[in-house]
Every structure is written in C-alpha cells, then in structure tokens.
C-alpha cells in the first residue's frame, strides 16, 4: 500500500528533476495546425499507455530502470498565444540545459521544436539537426505567419544557417521548398532514409539534435496524426535509424511530435509513440 | 446528366448569393478551444451529411425548397491568427446585412459568434440575444486573453450592455461568472429552458439574435463536441424552443456552434446539427 | 515554469494524503466481468480528462479548490488474483478510515465495492447502503464463485444483514434475485429512483455508504460500460439524487464503478464519470 | 464438454424449428437504403451480443427459458435482387404461419417488413398494423421504384386498405405523405406515442402485427442506424409501449428493423436491439 | 471575402467542365457489394479531405495548379436500380470522351468500372486494361447476376476479348477464376506487381485504361474498404506502379474504387484515396 | 428455404464433429491479460466475419469445401477461475486427440495455449513447438502467478524441456527472459523470421505444434490486440511462414491467439484472423 500522490510518469521514469540526467516534458500545443488538430493530448496519452511497454529494450540492450530520467509533464502553455507558449518552452529548455540535463521533448505540433532547438543552438553553437519527417516544413511563412508548423525547420535554419540540417523521408511540400533545400540550404532526402548512415558517420563527434515528426511513418503504421501522408516508413526503418544513432557520440537533445491520440482509438499509434520515447530516452542516456 | 461543378450546398439551399434571403456560412476556427479542438470541420461535415435529411419540416410545416437560401461555404480564415480571422467574419456578416439578407452562421468554436453579433448590433442597436449553452462564457479574460471561447458572451455584452442577453441551459462556469450574471448583467437560467416562453413573449417585436452552443444538449444526444457536459437538454427540448421562436417577429440573425464531427463517427451528432440548421434556416425565413 | 514531477491528480485534488479529508483511489480490476472487460482503465482516463471540467459546481455551489482532497491513484493490484486484490483494497480503505478520512473509491468492476464496504461496515456497525444500479447483483454465487461482480451486493448484505441496503434503478437480474430481495432482504426499487427521497429522509442521521454502478444510466448517456442495459436513467436524474444526498448528514464513504472508457472513444462516458466524481467528492466534504 | 456444432442462437432460444411456437429469422438486406447501408449485419450482431442479456425480463415477469423459440438465422437472400429476396422472405413467413408458429422477423432495412406483412395479411384478412417509426414510409414510389424502404408502409397499405395502419413517433417525411395519411388512409401520430393506449384498447381482440423501425428512438439512444433523426423516443417510452402491447390478445407476428451495428462500435445500439428482441419474443409467447 | 456558392471541388481542380482536359466524377453506388457496403460515400469524403494534401507532387514533379481539371461531383444515380445507374455512368463517360476530355472516375464499388470501360473501349477499339486488385473479379455470374462487383472484369473482358487485360496483385478468388485466367484469357499475376514493368513497356504506345481497386493495398494501409484482404501491397509499391505508368504514352482514362470511408474514422484510408487521385489526375495530364 | 437452427460455423467448416478431421474450437478467456483485455470475443467475431472470405486459398491451392472440418464454438469456460478454465481446455483437447482429430484452437489470451500443448505433448512425447510472437512469454512467474499469458511458453517448456521450442519474431520481454532463452533453453530469434526455413527443415518429420500470437504482426497490420508492439511482421511474412510449414509432414495441432476484435472496429484485424484460420486449417489438412 502506498498513500503517495498518483504518479503517472512515463514508464519507470520517476526520478526527481534534480537527480535526473534526461528530462521528459511535453508541449500541449496545436494552434497552428492547418488540418486536424489534437496533438495537445499526446503527452498524457503516452504516459497512461506506457504501462503497456517493457522497461527493457532488446534493441539497445538497455533498461530504463538503470537510468535516471525525470518526467515533468505537460508544460503550462497559454492557450491560443503562440509566442507566449513558445517562450515557455524556450525558457524551460534553457533551464534544463543549464542544469546539465538533456531535453527529451514530446509534441504537440511540430512548431514546438523551434524553441527547443533555439535553446540548444545557443548552448551548442555548432549543433546539427537530423530531421525525419513526411513534410519539408521549410516555408518562410504560412498563411502570413512566420511561426507555424509548416515553417518550423526554416526557423531552425535561421538559427544555424546552411549545411547544418539533414532531412530524411520527405514526401510532401511545396515545389519551392524542395528547390530551396536543393539550393544548398539543407540536405533533403526524399521518401526514405537512404544516406542516413553516411550522415551519421559524418556527424559522429558533433553535437546533434534529433527531431522526428512521427508522420514520417506510413499512415498504416501511424494513423493517429493530423496530416496522414501515405507512402511512408515502416516502424522497422525507424528502429534502424535508432540503431545508427547509437554511433552518435554527442546527442544533445531530441524530440518527436505530431501524435494525435484521439484519431486512433485502437491505441496502436500511441503505442508507436510510447516505444519511440523509450528508445529515444535510452539513446540520450547512452 | 449534369456537367456542372460539384455542388455540395447544404440540402436544397443552392440559390446564388444575390437572389437569396438567408445566407449560410461556416467559420472553420477552433484556435482558442481549451479542451478538444476539431470544430473547424463542422461546416463541410454538415453539408455532406445533409443529403440524409428531408427538405420538409413537420415542425415548421415549411419546405426548404420553397425559400431562397444560399450557402457560401467555409470562410477563408487565416489559421492561428485570431484577430484577423474574426475580422473576416465581421466583414462578411456586415456585407450580408448591408445586402439585406439574414446571416445564418455555423461554427467553429463559440468565439466566432462575437464578430457576427458585433455586426448585427451595429445595424440593430436595440438587438437582444437569446443564448442557449451549457457554459456561461462570461469570463472577462481567459488564460490572459480577451478573445476566447470562454469570454465570447462577455464580449457580446460589451457591445450591448446589461439586460439584453438571455442565457438558458447553463450548467458550467466559474463561480464569479454566475455571480456577475446575477448582479443584473444578464438573465441567466441554470440547467434548463424554464422561463424561455416569457422571455420570447417579451422580445416578440424586438430584433433578436439567437446563438446556440450545441453542447447545451446532453452528451448522450450530442457527444461530438469538445467539452461534453453531462446533464443537458434532450433534443426535443431544443425543438420546443424552436416552436417558441416562431413567435418572434424579428429574428435578425442566428448561429449554432461547437459541433466537432470527428469525435462522433456514428454521425449522430452531425445529424443533430443538420436538423438544427434546417430548422433555423426556416425560422429565419418565417 | 515548474520542474516538479508530472501531477495528474484528479482536477484540483492535489493535496497530500496527510492533509486531506477525502481520499480518491481507483481499483483497476475487471477479472470477474462476464461480458466486456475494460473497467481497469477508468481511473486514469478520468484523471486525464478531468482537465475538461470546472472546479466549481453550480449544483452544490461548492468549489473543489476550497477543500482538501488527495488522489493516491490506481491501487497496485495483483492481476488475476481476485482474493489478493480485494485484500489490498480492504487494507487501503481500513487505513484511510483509521486516519479519519473519507474513502472515495473509483472502480473497476463492481466487485471492488465489497472490500470497501466491508471496511466501512467494520468501523460503522450501523452503516446503511444506497445502491444505484441497473443490475441486482444479489446472486449468492455466479459461475460457481462467491466473489463476482454479480454477487457483490449479496456479499455486502452478508456484512450487515436485512433492511440495510436500498437499491434503486434495477432493471436486470435473475428472477430469484428479485424474489430474494422482495422477501425482505433489501429494499429494491425497479427501473427508477421513485422513493429515494423517503429513504434519504429516513437515513438522514445514519451512517450511509453510497455505491453507484454507472450502468444505471441509459446506454445513450453512458455507452462506455461493459453491459449496457437500455431503458436507464438520464444524467439529470442522477443529479437529482445528488441533490437529495445533500440532506444526508453522515455519508461515510462512496464509490462509483463500471466505466469502461475505451468502449466510448467520444469521451462522453468518461465526462459523465468526471462530473460524477466532482459531485461525489463535494458531497463527501459537505 | 460439448462437441456439438457451434450454436449462436439468440439467447436461450435454441429450440428446434419443429417444437417452437415463435420463430426468429433475420433478413440481411439493405439494397434500397438511400443513406448509410449496413443493416444486413444486424441479425448476427444481435445473436453474438445476446450473451450479455439476462433471459428473465422484469418488465414481463417472464423468462425466455420457459418458452419454445427457435432461431433459424439469416435467410439466404440473393444480393442485389430485390424482388427475389422479398420472395424468399415471403415464402419463409408463409411456411412459418402454415406451421402455426408466430414470425419474429429482424431486419435489415424496413422494406423487408412488406413480404412478412403480406403473408400475415393473407392468413389474417382483418389484420391491423401498429407501426412505430421516425419516418412516414408512405411514398408511392421512391427514385422511380415501387419497392423501397421509403414506400414500405404504402405497400402494406395496398394489402389492407385504409383505417388499418396506426403510425406513431413519425417525425420525418415528405409533405405529401403527411397529407395523404391525414386524408384518412392511416392513423398518423407525429413525434410521440400519445394515443397509443386508445389504439391498443380498440385493437384488443383483433389480429395485430407490430413493426418497429428502431430509428424511432432518439439517435442519442440508438446511433447505430442509417438515417439518424434527432428528437426521437427514449427507450423507456418504447418499454412503455411494450407494457401496453401486453393487452393485445392476438399479436400475430412482429418485426423490428434498421439496426446498423457497425455504425455504433460501443455496442449500445446492438444492446437496444437485443433487449427489444427479448421483449418482443416474450410478447409473442404471451 | 467571396460570396460565391460553396466550392468543394477536389483540391485545386476547380476548372469549369468546358475548359478542362481531365474530368473527375464519382459514382455513389454499392448495391452489389456482397460484404460491407459504404463505398457510395467515397467521392465526397475525398473532396472534403483533399484540403489536407499539397497540390504539388514530388513524385511526378507536377503541380495540380498548372493543369485544367474539372470535378463534376457525384453522378445522380437511381438507388437500387443497377442497370439504370450503370447507364448514367456510361452516358456520362461517353460524353466526356466525345468532348475530348479524359475520364477520371472514382467509385463506388468496382462494378462502376464496367460502363466507363465500355465507353472507353467503344472509342478506342484497341484499348488495354491494367487492373490492380486483390480480387480476380472474373466470375461469369455472382448470385445469379451478370452485373456484380465480382464479375466486373469478366464483363470488361466481354468488350475486348482475350489478351487485353493485365491483372496484378490478385490474392483472392474462386479456383475456377484463376484457372480461367490461366487459360489465356487474362494475364494474371498473383500477390504482387512483379512483371508490371514489362507489361508497361509492351503497352507503351497503346491506348491504356487503368483501374485500381484500392483493396489491393494491405488492410493495414487501407482498412477502409468493404472486403479487407490481408497480405496486400504497401502504398510505396503502388507509388512505384505510378512511376512506371509515366512511361505509358496513351492513358485514355482511369479509375480507382472501393474506398468505404466510414470504416476507417482515422481518415488514413481516405488520405490514401486523396493522394491516389492527385497522382492519377497528374498521370492523365502527362 | 431452410428451417434449421442458425449455423455460424467458420466459413465452410460445417461438418459434424464425428466426421471431421480437424476441429476448430475457441477459448473465450482473457483473465490474466495485463494490459487491454477483450480477446474473449475473438472466436465469434471470426465466425461472423468469415462470410467475407473465399473458401479457396490461392496460397495453398486448396479449398475448404474439399475437407472435413468441424467448428464446436466457444468452450464453456468458468469466468474468473483460471485453473478450472484451463482444465476444460485440456480435457477438450485430450478428447479431440483421442478421437484422432487435429486440434485447431483459437484464443483468447496466450495462456490458453498451455493446456492444448500439454495434451498434445502427452500424446506426442517428442513434439516440438514453433512459436511466433512479439513477446518472449518465458517468465517463470508474473505478478506472483505461475499461470499467466506472460509465462505460457515457460510452462510449455516445463512439459518438454530444452531444445524443443523455437521462437521467432520476439521483440519484447524482460532482460532475464532473453538471457534464459540464450542459455540453451529455447531457440529465440529476435525481430523476424530469419532461420525459420532451417528450423522447418530440421523438424520435417517430427511432430510439430504451431502457436502464433498474432501480435507478432506489426500493429499497423493488426491493431486489434491488447498489447500492440510496433516494429513487427508484415502479413506477407506470415504467409511466407505458412508456405514453409507446408514442408512439415507431421503438424499435430495449432493455434493462434490474442485477437481483441473490439479494439479495431474497421474489421481489418479480424480479417487477418479469418485468413489465418483458413490457412492454418488447410495446413492441418495437408
């Protein structure tokens, strides 16, 4: 019998913030979503369903129980105020980095990656980004706004400049985005992960930030997302990417985004996110 | 055989704007929603499913086919920019009123009522509002914002002042909202429609605007909404209200809001909205 | 910014156990369910969705924020071992009562009421039970077992004897159960709540335990339950019962059971449970 | 242990045809459905889910186990050939009547009532029909066809002539249908069951056939149907009708139609049909 | 602000019929479906959800905006009258071809391919068909009928004779169908697309009609279909087929069929159809 | 017309027990399930949906109609009494084997495999098991119990000892389970089916029992299961395993488990189980 307050930390990640090396936090924001919103519910859906997963990973041969991870829950974001919400995420990430912990952020829509990456790039000026996604997200503005899920990687680009962002799995975007990437601004691989191994090798000793938009997966695997884009990756391919990421010696932070749990009541999409979180937390602890 | 462009106007409401007396338009906006978003999809869900309803109403003994109604579809609202979106709605409504037509607006979240009512109150300075809802919506601000689904009736109040807004069915809100209403600002009836008949009698010859948040219905009847609040009205009670509204000689505009169609894949909630739209269009034609 | 561990206590009920007057705990057990299992997920579904409800109740004119309630989460029950699980619930309840707090238990299947009531009846030897349910639950055994969701009220009867249990809303059971009740063992009202007011009056100053099987509600209102039984109560009728319960001066504990959240992905059934929990917590604080 | 072939007869209705007094059969046909098809799956969904209901009815104080009912399953209907399918239903019903058993038919779309009623009216020339439905179903043709779910009661009328059909709960139809009824062809009660008691009294000793389109129920109660029409009956009202039907001394057959089980995955709509079938079978045995 | 009638043409395909080169039309018919009906709703579901897709295709490096496509919506088909409905489709297609436009038809059940192909084969006497499907559809009759979803390719065969139809992906059918194909009537490739490249090469300069039953995809990718058949194609394989089709110099018309959108409320299946339509329209414009 | 009792035997498997060579039976038990229960409904869901599959298999080139298979339905298992339920399964299997028929068992949770395998191993002392699953299921106890879905293969191991169990596709488990397997107790292949061909060759003439936990499939293919584990097999890979199993000359029994049909209302998961049952029945008849 325990009479402590309910603890719904992500599976086995019940350390206090102070003692942790990796910090999980979720960003319940989906206000710039252009199609089907609902990613704001991802964080807690993942927490609740994480009871269904083992803490041991046969992929990493690591056990969540052997590491110190804290889960500080959904950040408290002002509804409908994009700038203010992004600032909360930015300040939180900055503090986590100052405290010498690694940020493991869970979206929310993809725009929430921007303040995390901004904080990371301020600490690690030579940071590189590996970006796995169905969408380019390279527009300079979208519906007249600079800050949108459709511009997020462009805003990250603004922080670090050309040659630092490596995009994989891309299969949707405006023609101009593909051309802008091709002009040398980002490394953009269409449709699959071919070339990821070489990129990982070249970034082996660099600080690397990883952002995964789970809609890179085929909608068959991951229907619970706002903009399903057929023709994507199998989950085994993503697991293959994680195997490669083991070779990176300096992952400085990571996130995944765009689970919209109510769109897939079977729970399969949330299970994908749960497993992804376990693997990414372990990668950050490596 | 017809080789015209696809026409998905709401059931039998295929008149051109110029010749119409009532104009249907929908506002795909849900950005200030605090719980489950998705009302942006209401308009087109209603259009597509309207094929399942008769054009004759045995309640009104009127037939949609006998009246001129146009359906101009979803307004083109900038995603994530609340002020700009509200302005589009305001300008559109103003034009409709200038053209001597009646606005029949379909939300979207409840905040979209504000610009419609503002335009209406500018034309009819002595307009009164009948507001049927589960929620007070009387906060002065919400999460630090003046414009929110939770403040919408307070903003409408700002346009017309005390004694002009009549609220029914209310069963959720902050304590201060109930007290503020009671202080003489609005007529607020908790839980049901008792007293509506007297209100209708007293407003018989006044210009009246009607706004219905469909979540006033019990979630059993209408689960497809962002914030289901148990203990609400049966649909027959709403039909009873419509019977009363026949006595109003000067309805100057109307709306209903907060259908979130994806939350109820059975289609029953959308069917509620479809029938409500038929009845309200007929009331506006009366 | 807060860097504390994630807190998913039921809406505004974040007190520590020691300082609380009412204790919420949930029992994730559904092993004797004969039709559709899944109630084990009720507790956390209610916690997560409680963000969608106000802390103020216009029914009670009370505010959750003004009272000290703790939420100790799902009890840790051994899967598949009915007796051992019931014992954990019993010991937990006993401790809560010893600590002079009131138990507010959330099921799980209805059998979990038994150990709670047993502990309560040991402390209050003259306790009476108000039981609102679609089903009699009066079998002496079910599929050869004494401990089952279908025998739970009979087991409670074994603790207190005839004349102490008042059943309302019953519309399903074996013929012999109705006859056994009628023989003077329990007060059994079929189909509705008629007579509840008189019962409440007669129990005004007695210790009373309240158990509500939410399947007493019509499946239209509450489809998210294992054994939907058409022809039940509207939620307003249950709210009416809560109004009556305000007259009880000595409610010593309470529970509700049988939400199976995955069966109703619209969230409406969970919303019913969320509101019920708010109202019952406030009744316990009265 | 039993090594007999799987038996999925409706709850406790496992008699052989020869020894039975009432015969259950289902008609998997939905080809003239104009909106959402799927009623062809009703029969077997009801059989499988009937495990969730008691065989004792506290409404009738009767027990399915005390009566001889057979369930001969889905009739084998040629897909897409309306006339041929109706003929199979007609011949089957005729044989059941010849064998001095009572037909209890489960739809399918409402058109399947026609061949059943035709056979019944041939045996009982003075048969009357009680028809409970949301829709008039009185068109003379629909999309150019005489045989359609929308013409079914008109076709039944053709068999028996004016003054023999009593319609209740009607809330949807073409204007001309209401007028045609009013001209003395059928007794048509809009919206509810008011007057049913008088009708039952007047038909007490007449042969009566009962047909219930379950969409007479409010979509909140019964969302699993092709054409949900808000503003319908509560299930308790239908149970009230069944209480009245006990006074009929000569019910010669019955059916209910229009469950589309896949449209309501919660199972609540199927539970409504299961309970309705239990009550109607018991009424036929009375 | 626009006050034009609502326009729900498929994404960016808003040209008037007269000025268009490719014409989209949908056939809301599912009356011969033997298992789960519902494909009649495909056309409008695709239109509404097409807002979620980019108009640029990185596969074709083409942009819908650069081409003239009209969308004339659901054809007006008489419900329940198979022959008459097929005739409407036939006449419409004939007219489109006479007007020197290319038909892009969206089902409906697979039988609707027959009248389109008949019209096409009358204009192009040497037309060949590429047929991608899970099912043979080669029965000569089905439940005693010549015109059925299960006979559709056999009926097309009747128009053009042996050696002109190339089937891929087939994994379900009657034994006799496989044998009949093997006897030299059609080219039938079981399970996958192996050999498609050679077939495309051989048909390079021939008039080719393409029909895709989307149930060729694995149900994991495309659960929203009436007869899910496990073990099918990934969407990438279908995209690979489209790449091959670029080599065909004379595609004269195309269709895809069998989306049943209500069966997959996640929207993933509809997203598959939306993307398929974009790619096929672009192929027709090539 | 047939007036026989309803027959919902699995597709074309309507032989009487006495004359059959293969016996289908289902075990509606899910009491030790640790995450989402519901597999008890698998058997009848498969029966009802089997109408949607052909009786001919193009994979086996065999036809269900050419073989004698009986389907004795759900076994009658005491709810909530694990030991007693397992005994019913054990006794049933023993009798089937004594009657010189082959058992084809359908779960339920995986624990139901144990009594089947126990009976089989008593008849065939040198039996080997091929086990395809996402989970190790090798714990010696789970939540203090010896008999659990998580210990089932360990219990089977207790019957036959080391070197007799061959596990494939495993991607989840406790670290110690992987180590225990590796210590020579079972052959355990992680993640995929590599090496299955060699195993099949080596077991060619041995008695072999096959148990498939369908959650070995990727949740994209098979979301309808209690513990979805991303990164699994495609259905084509399982079909490939069946091709290999044709080489086994002495398959003595088989089962598959863990379909939870209500979790996937699209029916795609049930379709997977239906096809698997057809293929496995045919393999048993080979």
TrEMBL record, chains A, B, C, D, E, F:
Keyword terms, alphabetized: Hydrolase, Manganese, Metal-binding
Protein name: Putative agmatinase
Enzyme Commission code: 3.5.3.11
Domain of life: Bacteria
Family listed: Belongs to the arginase family. Agmatinase subfamily.
GO biological process per UniProt: putrescine biosynthetic process from arginine, via agmatine
MF (Gene Ontology): agmatinase activity; metal ion binding
Organism: Acholeplasma brassicae
Cofactor(s) of this protein: Mn(2+)
PROSITE patterns to which the protein is assigned, alphabetical: ARGINASE_1, ARGINASE_2
Positions contributing to Mn(2+) binding: 110, 133, 135, 137, 213, 215
Cross-referenced Gene3D superfamilies: Ureohydrolase domain
Pfam families per UniProt: Arginase
InterPro entries tied to this protein: Agmatinase-rel (IPR005925), Ureohydrolase (IPR006035), Ureohydrolase_dom_sf (IPR023696), Ureohydrolase_Mn_BS (IPR020855)
Entry's cofactor comment: Binds 2 manganese ions per subunit.
């Amino acid at each position: 019998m325990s009479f402590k307050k309910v603890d719904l930390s992500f599976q086995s990640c019940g350390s206090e913030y102070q003692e942790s090396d990796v910090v999980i936090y979720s960003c319940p924001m989906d206000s710039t979503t252009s199609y089907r919103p609902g990613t704001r519910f991802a964080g807690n859906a993942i927490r609740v369903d994480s009871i269904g997963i083992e803490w041991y990973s046969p992929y990493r041969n690591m056990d969540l129980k052997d590491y110190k991870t804290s889960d500080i829950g959904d950040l408290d974001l002002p509804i409908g105020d994009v700038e203010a919400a992004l600032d909360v995420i930015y300040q939180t990430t900055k503090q986590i980095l100052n405290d010498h912990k690694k940020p493991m952020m869970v979206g929310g829509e993809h725009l929430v990656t921007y303040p995390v990456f901004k904080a990371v790039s301020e600490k690690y000026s030579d940071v590189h980004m590996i970006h796995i996604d169905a969408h380019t997200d390279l527009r300079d503005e979208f519906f007249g706004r600079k800050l949108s899920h459709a511009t997020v990687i462009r805003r990250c680009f603004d922080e670090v400049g050309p040659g630092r962002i490596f995009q994989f799995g891309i299969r949707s975007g405006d023609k101009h985005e593909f051309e802008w990437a091709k002009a040398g601004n980002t490394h953009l691989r269409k449709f699959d992960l071919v070339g990821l191994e070489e990129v990982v090798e070249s970034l082996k000793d660099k600080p690397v930030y990883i952002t995964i938009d789970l809609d890179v997966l085929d909608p068959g695997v991951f229907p619970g997302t706002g903009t399903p884009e057929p023709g994507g990756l199998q989950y085994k391919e993503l697991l293959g990417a994680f195997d490669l990421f083991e070779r990176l010696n300096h992952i400085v932070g990571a996130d995944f985004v765009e689970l919209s749990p109510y769109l897939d009541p079977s729970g399969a999409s949330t299970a994908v996110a749960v497993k992804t979180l376990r693997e990414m937390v372990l990668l950050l602890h490596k």
